[in-house]
Each structure stands twice: as structure tokens, then as C-alpha cells.
Design brief:
Blueprint: H1 3-15, E1 21-28, E2 31-42, E3 48-49, E4 56-57, H2 61-76, H3 101-106, H4 127-133, H5 148-162, H6 166-178, E5 184-185, E6 195-198, E7 205-207, H7 213-217, E8 227-229, H8 231-242, H9 251-257, E9 275-276, E10 293-297, E11 301-305, E12 311-317, H10 327-346
Antiparallel strand pairs: 1-2, 1-12, 2-3, 4-8, 5-8, 6-7, 9-10, 10-11, 11-12
Helix pairs in contact: 1-10, 2-5, 2-6, 4-5
Length: 354
């Protein structure tokens, strides 16, 4: 494996300001082939170096690490079912009673991708009703619309089932079982975090506060975003994914979660919370096996696992520190994953099928 070329590629992205810092790892099961971090966790208002235990705003990776995993655990415990309908939980669904948990987790509910709750005449306590009352963007079940709003609603549904807040549910169902000691919602001010972008409501740069505006409006704990984590914890999480959920989820649950459940939708491939590689343009490049799985986060975080080999690849950045329109980042990310999986496939004995 040409790990030197992986490092050189990531360093080039730093030099060309595609991102201020990165933490990356490649492994399979308990093996780690590559682990590296470099750059500045902040450039503005002053340079601050990245450290090994710096927390990254995981953004939409929270959907996978927090909300999805909690839902899968509750499904295994019989507290939640994929065919459960919103009408079973919410008193007024505004015509959306037939939307199921399956629809929410595969992003086929028809609920819009995004709208600005924080600019609406709404209260955080009424978040579920705000989403339910908003018009659908497409008929339920007909197409994939990757929806932060659908996952906000899923988080609220989990809270109804458990009678507890989402952060406590995620701690019980995900963080404690997996030993993720450095993963938090609303991290304590004593913890070191990457800085994201300048806040829209002031001149200060956001650090230790969730970047996503809707999640911030909801107090930093939301089904779509809010988790902060470091490279070590994301490695532990990725090991579980690499091992098909062993020791955490039943194999049949995990296999269903990473199955393509949206074959009727030509433009997107989704499992239960997972983004899957089918063909064409993919954030994880084009050198993974069909059905490979993972997720990205808007702030510049991502994890992918190759389906055939179980090799995972992690890239954590704070690319939004330079602004949201950092197109070069997406090129560097895709090329990084392409390099990693191409090199591993070409390394004799390192990419044997599981």
C-alpha cells in the first residue's frame, strides 16, 4: 500500500486551502493501515494547531453515528418497527400519517431536504409539528430526497418512544456500548474543538457549537446533526462497521441496514441511514465495490467502508472554515478515497474478500 502517496495528497490539499486540517485513518477490523492528522484546527482569528484529541463537528455524520444506530438498536429491542407510521406516534400529522420509519431512514418520505426553522415563527419545543406541517416536496415513497428535516423528525420520534432526550438515548444505545468516550453533543467548553465558519449572527467563528443552524436552534441536540467526535472514536465506530456490526448489532440487522432499499430510485442508493455506492459520481470515489456504505457531513467529515473487503476509510476536516463554497475540497476528498481503494486493491493479500 502506497500510504506515502495518501499523505502527500492530503498535505497538498492543506497547501491549497481545500481544508485547514485533516485527521484520516484507513483500516480493517482491528488493523490500522494508516493514521495521520495535520494542519490547523483554526486559521482565524489566529492559527491553532490540530491535536490528536481535537473534536470535529460531525454534522450529518450524526445521522449515522447517533440517530440511525439508536433506531437500529430500538428495532432490535422491539421498541420500534420499520413499518411503524407517524400516525402511531403524533396526534396531528397534517396528512402525513402514513409515512413510516422506513421512509424516514431511507429518505423516501417526501419531506423536504431543508428549510430554515430558526427563521420561522416556531419554538424548538414544536419542532416535530413544524416539520409535519410543512408541505411535502414529493409523494411519499416515490423518490429519494436526502432530508435533514426527516431526520429531525426521526430524532423526535425516538424521544417519544424512549421518554428521554436524544442525547441520552444516543449515549445509552451507541456511545456507551461502543466505548466512544470522546463523542458528545454540546461539548464542554474545556474540550478542544475544530473551528468551523464565521457565525451568520455575529463576527465570531463557531467553535464548540454545532455548525448546523437548525440543530443549533434545537439546542445542539438534533436527529440531523450535533455530534462532535475525534479520530480515535471514529476509528472505533468504523471498526464496528467494518465487522458488520459484530458485538453491537445482530448481523441480520446490519445487513439490512446496508442493503439497497431504494432500487426503484435511479439517482440514489440508500439503506437504513446509510449512503450506498451503486455507480456514477460518489463522494467516496469510484474504486469501491458496489454496495459499499458510509456517510458524509457538511462540515467536511466522512466515513466509508468497502463492502467486499471491509476496509474502512475516514477523512475528517473542517472545510467550512474557509467558507461553504470550497469546491476544491470535494475533489480532494473524492481523489483521496480513490487513491486509497485503488492502492489497497492492487496490494497483494491486503484486499482479500471477507
Amino acid at each position: 500500500m502506497n500510504t506515502r502517496s495518501w499523505s502527500e495528497h492530503l498535505q497538498k490539499g492543506l497547501a491549497e486551502n481545500a481544508y485547514p486540517c485533516y485527521a484520516a485513518a484507513v483500516g480493517r477490523g482491528n488493523e490500522i493501515f494508516f493514521r495521520e492528522f495535520a494542519g490547523n484546527r483554526a486559521c482565524f482569528p489566529e492559527p491553532l494547531p490540530l491535536t490528536e484529541n481535537t473534536l470535529f463537528d460531525m454534522a450529518s455524520m450524526s445521522k449515522l453515528m447517533g440517530t440511525t444506530m439508536s433506531a437500529l438498536r430500538l428495532i432490535e429491542k422491539g421498541k420500534l418497527h420499520l413499518n411503524d407510521k407517524l400516525g402511531d406516534f403524533f396526534s396531528d400529522c397534517h396528512g402525513k400519517e402514513s409515512i413510516t420509519v422506513h421512509h424516514l431512514m431511507t429518505h423516501t418520505s417526501g419531506i423536504p431536504a431543508h428549510f430554515r426553522m430558526w427563521q420561522m415563527d416556531a419554538s424548538p419545543d414544536d419542532a416535530a409539528d413544524t416539520v409535519l406541517s410543512y408541505p411535502l416536496a414529493a409523494p411519499t415513497g416515490e423518490k429519494v430526497i436526502y432530508s435533514c428535516m426527516g431526520y429531525i423528525l426521526l430524532g423526535k420520534l425516538l424521544e417519544l418512544i424512549c421518554g428521554d432526550s436524544l442525547d441520552k438515548i444516543v449515549k445509552k444505545e451507541v456511545l456507551t456500548p461502543l466505548g466512544l468516550r470522546n463523542t458528545h453533543y454540546c461539548p464542554d467548553k474545556s474540550l478542544v474543538c475544530v473551528t468551523t465558519e464565521k457565525a451568520h449572527d455575529g463576527d465570531e467563528y463557531i467553535c464548540g457549537r454545532v455548525h448546523d443552524e437548525n440543530a443549533h436552534f434545537l439546542g445542539g441536540v438534533s436527529g440531523n446533526a450535533g455530534l462532535f467526535s475525534d479520530l480515535n472514536d471514529v476509528i472505533l465506530f468504523s471498526r464496528m462497521l467494518s465487522n458488520h456490526g459484530e458485538g453491537y448489532l445482530e448481523r441480520k440487522t446490519f445487513d439490512l441496514a446496508v442493503s439497497d432499499l431504494t432500487l426503484h430510485c435511479p439517482d440514489s442508493s440508500r439503506g437504513l441511514g446509510f449512503q450506498l455506492f451503486r455507480s456514477g459520481t460518489y463522494p467516496g470515489g469510484s474504486n469501491m465495490s458496489p454496495g459499499s456504505y458510509g456517510h458524509t457531513g457538511f462540515t467536511g467529515t466522512s466515513v466509508y467502508v468497502d463492502k467486499d473487503s471491509g476496509v474502512y476509510c475516514i477523512l475528517l476536516t473542517n472545510r467550512v472554515h474557509f467558507g461553504r463554497n470550497t469546491d476544491s475540497f470535494f475533489v480532494y476528498r473524492r481523489e483521496f478515497y480513490d487513491k486509497v481503494y485503488k492502492d489497497i486493491k492492487e496490494s497483494e493479500g491486503a484486499f482479500s474478500l471477507m
